[in-house]
Design brief:
Elements (H helix, E strand, L loop, with lengths): L3 E4 L4 E4 L7 E6 L14 H15 L3 E6 L6 H10 L3 H18 L15 H13 L3 E4 L2 E4 L15 H5 L16 E6 L14 E3 L1 H13 L3 E7 L3 H16 L4 E7 L2 E3 L2 E2 L10 H7 L2 H9 L7 E2 L2 H24 L12 H19 L4 H18 L8 H21 L6 H16 L3 H16 L3 H13 L2 E6 L2 E6 L2
Parallel strand pairs: 3-4, 3-9, 9-10, 11-13
Antiparallel strand pairs: 1-2, 5-6, 6-7, 7-8, 11-12, 14-15
Helix pairs in contact: 2-3, 4-6, 6-7, 9-10, 10-13, 10-14, 11-12, 11-13, 12-13, 15-16
């Protein structure tokens, strides 16, 4: 099946055809670094981490650039509040972003260009636009002439005449047309500034990505990504700038992910309804966030709520519990001598085909997850806790483990030791309940002693007490097994 993505530019799902296969060049708009990033800022990195992994699984060679906007009004405001230079603000929060990114277990990008390292290329790009008659100098500022680009609005579907009604010229601006946007802003007293042919100043927001994409990936790129909130005006302006300067199609496929919703509203710093990733990771395992993002389609809005966290915990527990059971049946020193169960392997191959077809069709992760869960249900129906590890059971366990780890590698999920993951997850859930592992184990031991003494009334009372605490107990030939109910 051919790889297909929904292309925002064409408004249809179409076959992916890179410019120079097997090379694939990806550019993703990164954060403006003036504070800790909120959980909504990481939806794109998680989705595009899967995108790159899947492209490589399909045989493509990917070059991936994500930029940092490290000069901006918000950074300047933060520098005043923190009483440190703007450059220190941006470097501080680039470091914190990378710390959160690493904690999520995502793969580093080949390039993370910064605006402040790209000034010569930005100035050259603006100069080209002036020479092409697409931009003009007004005092110490430079503006892009929107009406000079007849296709303006083709990404977002907006029409110039409709935009004009809401456009205005701010005090101090010298635009020829209210629709025009700044490519270069003349320096204001006390603000960071760089030299240019139009005087000291700094770039406008939109020109940065056009210049950095061109400098690091070339004049045309295969995939450009961003949130739906960037479609207009940021990405629309990128197209106008890049195609206006270079006279060729800027991006082959535009992929946009939808927003996270918090309490029925889009999550954003401006609304104040956000949780930073650092805050989230202080209380939750990073795989919970990745599950929340990947279990829904990237083009639909995603719920970010305690219920969504609980659903992620339940889903992860099902996967890791099955993986833990599979690993418990395999030899501790390795599974090289275990032979795959032929019938179960055939089923696994069919499941992988379903997963592949889902991911091939616009990264349809919900369908891929559904196929995985059907496979987990089948495995759990045939392999039970406490079974003796005979060759037939081990053969199924091996096949099951191989498929889930293969799928998990694409998602950057399920790569931890199942036993260690479940232990850590239970510890976090126990902490949230105000319980200690030793307390629970003592109750389980007391129940076990009552069962051994055939005091079933006391045994039932202990079970009821454990159930009331949210602890699930299973009895096996090897003894009682307990975990936090999920």
């Amino acid at each position: 099946m051919a790889l297909r993505f929904y292309n925002t530019l064409t408004r249809q799902t179409e076959e992916f055809k890179p410019l120079q296969p097997p090379q694939v060049k990806i550019y993703m708009c990164g954060p403006t670094v003036y504070n800790f990033l909120h959980v909504g800022n990481f939806r794109g990195p998680v989705v595009f981490n899967l995108l790159r992994n899947w492209l490589e699984e399909k045989g493509y060679v990917v070059t991936f650039a994500l930029n940092f906007t490290d000069v901006d009004d918000k950074i300047i405001e933060a520098s005043k509040k923190e009483n440190i230079p703007a450059s220190e603000v941006s470097e501080k929060y680039i470091f914190e972003y990378k710390k959160d990114f690493a904690a999520l277990g995502l793969r580093a990008h080949e390039m993370n260009p910064k605006v402040t390292d790209s000034m010569p290329g930005i100035v050259d790009f603006i100069q080209t636009l002036i020479e092409q008659g697409k931009a003009y100098v007004a005092g110490n500022d430079v503006y892009y002439s929107v009406r000079s680009f007849p296709e303006y609005g083709k990404l977002s579907g907006r029409k110039i005449d409709d935009l004009l009604s809401g456009a205005r010229v701010e005090v101090g601006e010298h635009k020829k047309d209210p629709l025009d946007f700044a490519l270069w802003k003349g320096a204001k007293p006390g603000e960071p500034a760089w030299e240019s042919p139009w005087g000291g100043g700094r770039p406008g927001w939109h020109i940065e990505c056009s210049a950095m994409a061109c400098e690091h990936l070339g004049e045309q790129i295969d995939i450009h990504g961003g949130g739906t909130d960037l479609m207009f005006p940021h990405h629309e302006n990128e197209i106008a700038q890049s195609e206006g300067a270079l006279g060729k199609r800027f991006v082959g496929t535009w992929i946009h992910w939808n927003m996270l919703n918090f309490g029925g509203q889009k999550m954003s710093k401006s609304l104040g309804n956000f949780t930073t990733m650092r805050e989230f990771l202080n209380h939750h395992h990073p795989e919970i966030y990745k599950w929340m993002i990947l279990s829904v389609h990237h083009r639909t809005s995603a719920d970010f709520s305690p219920d969504a966290v609980d659903r992620a915990i339940t889903g992860l527990a099902r996967v890791y519990s099955a993986l833990a059971m599979a690993e418990s049946l395999l030899p501790a020193h390795g599974s090289a001598e275990v032979l795959p169960d032929a019938g179960f392997q055939k089923t696994a191959d069919e499941v992988w085909t379903r997963i592949s077809e889902a991911l091939d069709h616009d990264l349809a992760t919900p369908e891929a997850f559904a196929a995985m869960f059907e496979f987990i249900h089948l495995f759990n129906s045939q392999v039970k806790r406490g079974m003796k590890p005979n060759p037939a059971v081990q053969g199924k366990a091996l096949v099951f483990r191989q498929l889930l780890l293969r799928f998990g590698k694409m998602l950057s999920l399920f790569q931890q030791s199942p036993a260690a993951f479940l232990h850590e997850l239970d510890d976090r859930l126990l902490e949230a309940k105000g319980l200690q592992r030793e307390q629970v184990q003592a109750l389980v031991d007391q129940r076990g002693a009552a069962r051994a003494a055939k005091d079933f009334k006391a045994s039932d009372e202990f079970r009821d007490k454990l159930t009331g605490l949210g602890i699930a107990v299973s009895d096996t030939p090897e003894g009682s097994f307990w975990e936090v109910a999920k």
